[in-house]
Write a structure and sequence with these properties.
Distance between the termini: 71 Å
Number of strands: 18
Number of helices: 10
Oligomer: single chain
Helix content: 10-25%
Order of helices and strands: HEEHEEHEEHEEEEEEEEEEEEHHHHHH
CATH superfamily of the largest domain: Oxidoreductase, molybdopterin-binding domain
Strand order of the largest sheet: 2-1-11-5-6
Strand content: 15-25%
CATH topology of the largest domain: Sulfite Oxidase, Chain A, domain 2
Shape: globular
CATH architecture of the largest domain: Alpha-Beta Complex
Number of domains: 3
Largest sheet: 5 strands, mixed
Radius of gyration: 26 Å
CATH class of the largest domain: Alpha Beta
Structural class: alpha+beta
């Protein structure tokens, strides 16, 4: 019994000595580094140096909302971010700021967020009590109960709100270790998409959406220009409480205007429409509801999301599909084609269903044709994509019946090969035969077309395809990425 108590005490003391969040460092060791081509010099600070920045340390009550949404107050004390950037020599051409937590392991980076410089340095406010301007800080003391309860805490980015409804806590990065300032070009969000349904009373039910999962959509119905202070349509993130994002009802000739906004991007251009114009069949079939016809082309594929290494807990970033190698999951996510299978997980080895394969093809076709994709899911969720695929000749109405089953690799080749015009699948390989694809193989022509275009490569040196096997989500991400990124396709192969 004495030995057991001794071991228990030992393990308790050992646990107390372990670092918390990767930031239990000696007092004379740097806890924060600022770097990047947007500053004159790389500079590091110890915790003691941060605390000693007299005149640049403040404490405030920061009002905030999360994406559930739930309101909260953060009582925090820390050093002004603007002062830290000044000491690093912020350049005039700096545009973006990436705030990153300490790495989880040697090979896995921690959570990080990218902001535009103005996202953090523009005047922001707390709405706790009177509306008061507050600075963006790197906090070293914090509480959610009150100033009297503030404790020393690992460094955390905390900043104010532009509007009382702004959802800021997604950007409150904890365990901050590095701040990287760059002069990268500023990316702009795509316009929101809209759909309208005529109601029995003659009015219209309007739904708004964005291809960027983090974007918030703000709209007006009086013809005025929408801003971040306008009504918010998607008050909840889609993985939390999507039932809160309810359509609004207006007359058919109401002038609805909407923008998409999220940190790290310039606000989208304004989408402007009258609901009656969306439900009368005025758009050509290849244009999703709510989007004006655009000019078709591969240049319509642009990155609309930002992927961070380690974003999905079940994605090995050192695997063939990972960020540190071929980046196929990152590409599929950033171009708005694939999302997580659940909050925080991608399920790379899970099978892709026929419904998901059709969804991917519909998104590719829509973006190619118009520059955007906008689909309002109903019941079942995939029906809108199936209807679009049939209407645009991606599949035939009688091709499939059970969309929830796993797709075969041959079926995937058939569906993906019809997501773009055939002129976009330029032959760059000589493929006359494959070990397991013969005259009787379903969708043989589609399989050969994708091999010749360098989109399919086979599982071995002979080009074995395994047409009857299911296909994983990671494999689907690789193939659909090659569909939209011709520079990633293989060339000069012969089978």
């Amino acid at each position: 019994m004495k030995q057991i108590r001794t071991l228990a005490v030992f393990f308790l003391l050992f646990a107390l000595m372990l670092p918390v969040g990767g930031q239990a460092l000696a007092s004379n060791e740097p806890v924060l580094t600022i770097r990047g081509d947007g500053v004159e010099r790389e500079i590091s600070f110890t915790l003691a140096e941060l605390r000693a920045m007299t005149g640049h340390v403040s404490r405030n009550a920061y009002s905030a909302w999360n994406t559930w949404p739930t309101r909260s107050i953060y009582y925090a004390e820390g050093v002004h971010l603007a002062e830290l950037l000044r000491r690093a020599g912020l350049k005039d051409g700096a545009t973006t700021v990436n705030v990153a937590e300490a790495p989880q392991t040697e090979d896995v980076p921690g959570y990080n967020m990218t902001f535009l410089l103005d996202d953090l340095l523009a005047e922001r406010f707390t709405f706790e009590g009177a509306r008061t301007a507050v600075p963006a800080i790197i906090a070293f003391r914090q509480s959610i109960r009150g100033f009297a309860d503030m404790d020393d805490t690992p460094l955390r980015l905390i900043y104010g709100q532009l509007d009382a409804q702004e959802q800021t806590t997604l950007g409150f990065v904890r365990f901050v270790r590095t701040i990287t300032v760059t002069s990268d070009p500023i990316r702009q969000l795509p316009m929101p998409q809209a759909a309208a349904e005529r109601l029995p009373d003659g009015r219209y039910s309007v739904t708004l959406s964005s291809s960027n999962i983090n974007a918030k959509i703000h709209y007006t119905t009086d013809g005025s220009a929408p801003t971040v202070h306008s009504a918010m349509f998607n008050v909840s993130a889609p993985h939390w409480q999507p039932h809160l994002n309810v359509p609004f009802t207006v007359s058919g000739d109401t002038q609805v205007r909407a923008i998409a906004a999220t940190p790290g991007f310039a606000n989208s251009e304004v989408l402007s429409f009258a609901p009656a114009s969306l439900s009368g069949g005025e758009n050509p079939p290849e244009s999703p509801p709510g989007m004006p016809p655009g000019e078709a082309g591969m240049e319509n594929f642009v990155r609309v999301n930002s992927y961070r290494s380690g974003q999905f807990v079940d994605v090995d970033e050192n695997s063939w599909y990972g960020y540190n190698r071929n980046k196929v999951i990152a590409n599929a996510y950033e171009f708005g084609l694939m999302r997580g299978a659940s909050a925080g997980a991608f399920n790379p080895v899970g099978s892709i269903t026929l419904a998901e394969a059709v969804t991917l093809a519909a998104r590719v076709h829509s973006i190619y044709a118009t520059g955007n994709e906008s689909f309002t899911q109903g019941t079942p969720w995939f029906q809108v994509y199936v209807d679009y695929a049939i209407a645009n000749g991606i599949i035939a109405a009688d091709d499939f019946t059970a969309y929830t089953r796993a797709a075969t690799r041959a079926e995937m080749a058939y569906i993906f090969s019809r997501s773009l015009p055939q002129s976009e699948f330029i032959e760059q390989n000589t493929v006359n035969s494959l070990p397991d694809v013969g005259d009787g193989t379903p969708y043989r022509d589609s399989i050969f077309a994708l091999y010749r275009a360098g989109i399919l490569t086979g599982s071995d040196a002979q080009g074995t395809f395994n047409p009857g096997n299911s296909i994983s989500r990671a494999e689907a991400a690789a193939i659909i990425s090659r569909v939209i990124l011709p520079e990633t396709r293989t060339a000069d192969r012969e089978f």
